[in-house]
């Protein structure tokens, strides 16, 4: 009798497990269908937005053609235009070069006119034939026009078909323009505007972070950015990120001014942050002692090297700090440390927003070939530094576009076994430093407000007072 009951219970248990499994599958499928529908709506809205933007961009061209059609020589010009399949390249020669003022220049190319010609002069050695490229139509393409094509593509992610209408060139020629200009930016501008800091630059970075954010020994903040891409059939599963959608991962490190000094890009969207870090030149630099000055620096009498600040997706190392995991058991000094670290990490959030706002190829879904996406992203980071260092204006509507098309960035917690046990000593020392600073035992440095091109950073972190009862302070 007991055996029959056990068998009946086993069968019932099997049925229940099967039912639960099927129910989970139904729920997961429903979630995926809903997520797909949401992304479809987002893509449709982006299409409508891009269509409206195209209409705005084409307005100067249409006006110029209307005015020319009423001129006495309109018939002659029309006959001439038909010989080249009605090329509309006069938008560059007649509208941009002749009529654009500073605001129109900034609106279309997202750089000032001075910076545009600075780029052209710097990139000129990379191109032969005095900066001319022979197009399929056997017409020469000046260097300035090539740079303009690349900047519009990077700044607005405009389709090549529309670029062809504006510049009167074929899609293949324009694609080659973007590729070669991005390559020239990486070859010639990257060594000047984005490189690993030397001994003196590391000391200046640490001083800047300490003065502006009150965080000692910090020389950079790192994080990852997911660049949305179209679904690549051979690698669709690898490029699928945890928040939905296909993407390419870019890791960046910024200084206190929000300029990048290290970028690693090209990983599939499913790659974890720790894997990206361990595959980057930054990892090799830190492993070889690039962040450990000699003789070692001292903090509260203890030797401590330079540190970078990351989020929970990175492993803890003596050169890479992250916040304590949220828990009701956190002490007041630990909560204080988390507050300072998270406030300092706002630097890279701010830099990523400005990067995506000015160079929207890093924010909007890219239709470029998969191998070209990392090159465009790296070139955009270099151009971000160029604009920041030369003080190019930043338009508020660019940030508004980022907010409207905001996509959730995947996040995952690095497993504890990847943490370096010796790194906890450095984090505890920094924790004690901030706690003693709060108590007035270490003279604090008053942080300076950090403002870049009219967009202020968040206010410096102010630690809360310790609880009156002396107990634990819960994380918010």
Automatic annotation (TrEMBL):
Signal peptide: none annotated. Residues 222-385 form the DDE Tnp4 domain. GO terms for molecular function: hydrolase activity; metal ion binding; nuclease activity. InterPro entries: HARBI1-like, HARBI1_dom. It is found in: Nucleus. It comes from the Eukaryota. Its cofactor is a divalent metal cation. GO terms for cellular component: nucleus. Its main location: nucleus. Keywords: Hydrolase, Metal-binding, Nuclease, Nucleus. Belongs to the HARBI1 family. This is DDE Tnp4 domain-containing protein. It comes from Coilia grayii (Gray's grenadier anchovy).
